[in-house]
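Side project, low priority. Logging it here so it doesn't get lost.
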Amino acid sequence: MCPADFIDYWIGAKQVFKIEREITKKGVTSFETIYGITSLNTSPEHVLNLVRGHWGIENKSHWVRDVVFDEDRIR
């Protein structure tokens, strides 16, 4: 089933999107594909900016938790 086929399962869904990204960490490059569903009826550029903004907040939050609170060592 194509991701666009899932839009009928969510009331209020307006768009599905696919983002392909390239990630390089410590010289190693990997690729990943993410899919999403939104109730927004907006441009692809706006959806991409929203996703990037979300991950910017996530990354900053995790950095604080890892560095300040040493959360990675706490199990």
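Brief comment: The mean pLDDT is 78.
Revisit when time allows.
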